[in-house]
């Protein structure tokens, strides 16, 4: 689904040139989940924007589904850290917005949105506005809007970072269920080591800026709730923590 070869990104400003990503390469297969972690400011979100076609200025080669990455790819959905919901639109209006922009027929829009809102437990909230929802409910609406587009690639930027511990774990479980049912490829960036280990079949660890790939772990325990309680989960979490602490200590 994703092929990245020799990717480098540099921010060129009037008074400075700032290299952010330096010569990274990786591949991600269809239907896999991948977590990207690393120190703050290392370029995780920049990588996600490149994959979404929102950052066209880069060096190297980036393919999505075998084609050069481009903006407005119809099968790519992006969920941003702040949910990206319009405060003046209801849950229903926010959910169907993407389908309206694609000029789908009204009956198909309604059928898709009702099915997805029901799947995510939001059917009773369709008339409410974002300000009337909890953080977890707002995140579910953002997920519903993304899934209404029937994507084969879901890109997520710190999707659960602003939520309390229990809500975050519940939504992590919901995301796993969606992944199992739909087979969508998921790549997300996170600062949370437990979240990366719980959700990422692959875990890519980035260094400080300019970021390089420090490690690329296979994580076969993903997909079962019991994984959180296993010895392997905690051992991998500790290994990642030590690696990131060592990177942070580098001057």
Structural class: alpha/beta
Overall outline: globular
Characterize the main sheet.
6 strands, mixed
Q: Report the count of strand segments.
A: 10
Order of strands across the biggest sheet?
6-7-8-3-9-10
Mean of pLDDT? 88
Low-confidence stretches: none
Strand residue percentage:
15-25%
Gyration radius, to the nearest Å?
Answer: 18 Å
Q: What is the helix fraction of residues, given as a range?
A: 25-40%
Distance between the termini: 36 Å
**H/E element order:** EEEHEEEHHHEHEHEEH
- Compute the number of helices: 7
Summarize the structure.
The chain is α/β, with parallel strands linked by helices.
Description:
The structure is a single chain. The protein has 251 residues and is α/β, with parallel strands linked by helices. The chain is 36% helix and 24% strand. It has 7 helices and 10 strands. Helix 2 crosses helix 3 and helix 6 crosses helix 7. The radius of gyration is 18 Å and the shape is globular.
Topology diagram in text:
Layout: E1 2-12, E2 17-28, E3 33-37, H1 44-52, E4 59-64, E5 67-68, E6 76-79, H2 91-101, H3 106-119, H4 135-147, E7 153-157, H5 165-182, E8 185-189, H6 193-199, E9 202-206, E10 213-218, H7 231-249
Parallel strand pairs: 3-8, 3-9, 6-7, 7-8
Antiparallel strand pairs: 1-2, 1-4, 4-5, 9-10
Helix pairs in contact: 2-3, 2-4, 6-7
Key terms:
single chain; 251 residues; alpha/beta; 4-stranded antiparallel beta sheet; 7 helices; globular
């Amino acid at each position: 689904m994703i092929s990245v070869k020799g990717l480098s990104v540099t921010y060129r400003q009037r008074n400075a040139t700032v290299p952010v990503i330096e010569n990274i390469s990786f591949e991600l297969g269809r239907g896999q989940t991948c977590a990207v972690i690393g120190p703050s400011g290392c370029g995780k979100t920049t990588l996600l924007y490149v994959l979404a076609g929102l950052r066209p200025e880069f060096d190297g080669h980036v393919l999505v589904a075998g084609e050069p990455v481009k903006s407005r790819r119809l099968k790519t959905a992006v969920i941003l850290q702040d949910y990206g919901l319009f405060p003046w639109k209801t849950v229903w209006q926010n959910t169907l917005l993407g389908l309206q922009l694609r000029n789908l027929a009204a009956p198909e829009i309604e059928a898709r949105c009702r099915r997805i809102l029901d799947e995510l437990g939001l059917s009773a909230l369709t008339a409410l506005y974002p300000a009337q929802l909890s953080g977890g409910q707002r995140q579910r609406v953002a997920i519903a809007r993304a899934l209404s587009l029937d994507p084969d690639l879901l890109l997520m930027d710190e999707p659960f970072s602003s939520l309390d511990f229990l809500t975050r774990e519940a939504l992590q479980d919901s995301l796993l269920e969606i992944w199992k049912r739909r087979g969508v490829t998921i790549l997300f960036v996170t600062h949370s080591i437990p979240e990366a280990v719980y959700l990422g079949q692959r875990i890519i660890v980035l260094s400080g800026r300019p970021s390089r790939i420090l490690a690329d772990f296979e994580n076969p325990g993903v997909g079962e709730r019991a994984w959180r309680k296993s010895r392997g989960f905690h051992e991998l979490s500790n290994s990642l923590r030590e690696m990131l602490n060592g990177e942070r200590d580098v001057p």
